[in-house]
């Protein structure tokens, strides 16, 4: 760039380019989720749960990354993510439970991945929520 554009006085170092490549790779998950969330020609609510859970798992990994910059960015993302997770995760769970391909199996799978030892309690709670919705309907 410096040879082509004389206005560039300083360029990113090799380490900075490598870091940018790492960050771009990590942010790829947001591109995938955005594509699913913005779908308007077909129902996608049943796909949201798995994608959001995958994002949660990625954030959990990034929180223990050896690079302190990644940890710092992940901590900020985690704070925002948990705020919304607490509000909407049960809605996403209900959508996935209604999908005959997944039912409660996917809920148990992700509960175990999140380190929840009592997955049966999580599944029982989901079952109660879905039952209450059916009764109300």
TrEMBL record:
Q: Name one GO molecular function term.
A: DNA binding
List the signal peptide residues: none
Limits of the hAT-like transposase RNase-H fold domain? 38-137
- Can you tell which superkingdom this protein's organism belongs to? Eukaryota
The record's section on InterPro entries has: hAT-like_transposase_RNase-H, RNaseH-like_sf
Q: Name one Pfam family in it.
A: hAT-like_RNase-H
**UniProt-recorded name of the protein:** hAT-like transposase RNase-H fold domain-containing protein
């Amino acid at each position: 760039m410096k040879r082509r554009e004389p206005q560039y006085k300083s360029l990113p170092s090799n380490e900075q380019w490598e870091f940018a490549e790492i960050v771009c790779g990590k942010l790829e998950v947001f591109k995938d989720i955005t594509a699913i969330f913005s779908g308007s020609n077909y129902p996608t609510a049943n796909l949201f749960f798995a994608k959001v859970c995958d994002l949660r798992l990625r954030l959990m990994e990034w929180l223990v990354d050896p690079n302190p910059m990644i940890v710092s960015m992940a901590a900020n993302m985690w704070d925002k993510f948990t705020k919304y997770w607490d509000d909407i995760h049960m809605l996403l769970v209900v959508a996935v439970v209604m999908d005959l391909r997944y039912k409660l199996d996917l809920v148990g799978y992700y509960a175990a991945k999140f380190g929840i030892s009592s997955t049966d309690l999580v599944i029982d709670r989901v079952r109660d929520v879905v039952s209450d919705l059916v009764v109300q309907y």
